[in-house]
Every structure is written in structure tokens, then in C-alpha cells.
Amino acid sequence: MTASAIKRVGIVAKASLRGAADQLSGIAAWLKARGIEPMFDDRSAALLNAAVETSPSRDRLPELVDLILVLGGDGTLLAMADRMAVSRCDIPILGVNFGGLGFLTEVTLPELYKALESTLAGTAPTEERLMIRAAIMRGGEINSDRQALNDVVITRGARSRIIDLSVSIGGEFVARFKADGLIVATPTGSTAYNLASGGPILHPAVDAFVLTPIAPHTLTNRPLVISAASELRIQPLMEADEETILTYDGQTAVALQQHDTVVITRAPFRLRLVHAATRSYYEVLRQKLKWAER
């Protein structure tokens, strides 16, 4: 996407950035000076000390702009990725780290304007990131259907002990996992909850998912990497009074019921993620995760 194609930039800021009004105003002024209209969502507009003429909801914002600029942490970007998948808006998203780790929002604050300039010029590196889709089948019908950038996770509730999950891939029974839960992660999400639970790191270009049991009851339950073209079916073998939860990107949680089946596939939407031109994926691993350091 070139500068001529970008006329509006949607700006989404982390809700807790109460002291960032001057920076947000500065970004808006910088864009206006280049003939580009900044558009804050309603929550981000509330952080400014000045009135904003147009401030749509975060759900509607992707439909109205040509680029999304996220200012915050990875959680803020994940929440926007979900909204962009729902709206099927094929626009790039640029994440600037105002949070903690900032693995997805890898651009630092000092790099903000340089990254914006290269994005507007169409020279910034952009990757298409695989997303995952999980539908809950209940009584033969789809009860819930959402997409995620990082992972979908099935875990036990507060009143449950170890849960028993029957897993099939491509119509073939694979295994029963007895554990505290099961993570199904994309390559992007392989460095999140999956990594913390002992799963492998997958390069973003790999077209695969990784299944990682959480605190498995047996040592033979190890992480498994499968093709993203596969259809994965997970059935919790639970009693009616047990609690089992399905979580999307750690943002949205849905309670599963007895006899539910979770059907997981590659999502039809891929996120276009802009990353810093100054560092590679492996540099991000070393800097953010201290990868391979002793």
C-alpha cells in the first residue's frame, strides 16, 4: 500500500495511557501535515484533552480507515486483530509498544514516526499472519464462532480438576489429553502461552498449528505440530457439573457444555502486520525473549 492509497489512519490507544494526550495529539498533527486524516476510536478519543469530531467505535473503525495504528501492548493489538477479522478489512496494522514485553507491538516509541513514514510510503516490511478459527458445535449447530491471532485455549474451570479432551485431526482420532488444559496456537502465538507451557517456537511463515497440553497428567503428552490445513476437533469428556472454558487470545471466554465439540481450522482472514525494518524476527526473539541467552 502506497502513500496515495492511505487517506485515513485509525488510531487505537491502550485505555490506561492517560498521560499520552500530548503524544496522541502529536501523531494527529503529524498525519494532518501530510494530508492524511487521523481517526481515533471513541475510547482513544477520550484520552485526548481536546474535542474530536469523528470517533467511531473500535468495532467500526477498521471499515473506515486504510491503516490501523495501535499504541499499547500486545493485548491491545490482539483485540484489534479480532475486530479486523470480523469485519474482513484487508488493511495493515502497525503496533507501537507502550506496554511491557511488546512482542507483536515491536516498534518502539522513538521509532514511531520513522515506521509511520515508511508505512505511508509503502516501503515498510509487512507480513501476513495466519489466524485460527474455533467454532463450538452444540446440538449439531454452531453456537459460537470466533477467530484469534495467537491461540485458542481450553482450560478447566475453578471447580474442575484435570480435564479429559478427546482430539481428532482430519477425521482421525489422535489422543485423549488429560491435563489442566490444551493450547492450540498459531506461529504468531507460539511465543505466548504456548512457549510458557513448554511448546516450541514456530516461525511466522510456517503454515502450522501447535497443540500443547497444559500440565499434562502423563509425561508422554508432548506438544504436537500439525498442518494448518487440518481440521481439528476437540471434545471435552466432562460431566454436566464440570466447568470447561474456551478462550480466544486471552480476550474472550466461552463456557463449554457437556457434549460440545470445538472445531478448529485455519481462519479465512490473515492479518497484515507491519514490523520494524530495523530488526529481523530472530532479533526480536533475542531482544524481547532473551532467546538462547545463557
Give a brief outline of the structure.
The chain is of the alpha+beta class. It has helices at residues 21-32, 42-45, 61-64, 74-87, 112-121, 193-196, 281-289, and strands at residues 8-13, 37-40, 67-72, 92-97, 126-129, 132-138, 141-148, 151-156, 163-169, 172-179, 181-185, 208-214, 224-227, 232-236, 244-248, 252-256, 261-266, 271-274. The chain has a six-stranded mixed beta sheet with strand order 2-1-3-4-18-5, with helices on both faces. A six-stranded antiparallel beta sheet has the order 7-6-17-14-9-10.
Q: Say what the CATH topology of the largest domain is.
A: Rossmann fold
The overall number of domains is 2
Q: What spatial form do the alpha-carbon principal axes imply? A: globular
- pLDDT below 50 for ≥5 consecutive residues: which ranges? none
Give the overall average pLDDT.
91
Strand content: 35-45%
Compute the gyration radius: what is it?
20 Å
The helix/strand class is: alpha+beta
Report the biggest beta sheet as strand number plus sense, adding barrel if it closes: 6 strands, mixed
Q: How many H/I helical runs?
A: 7
CATH top level assignment of the largest domain: Alpha Beta
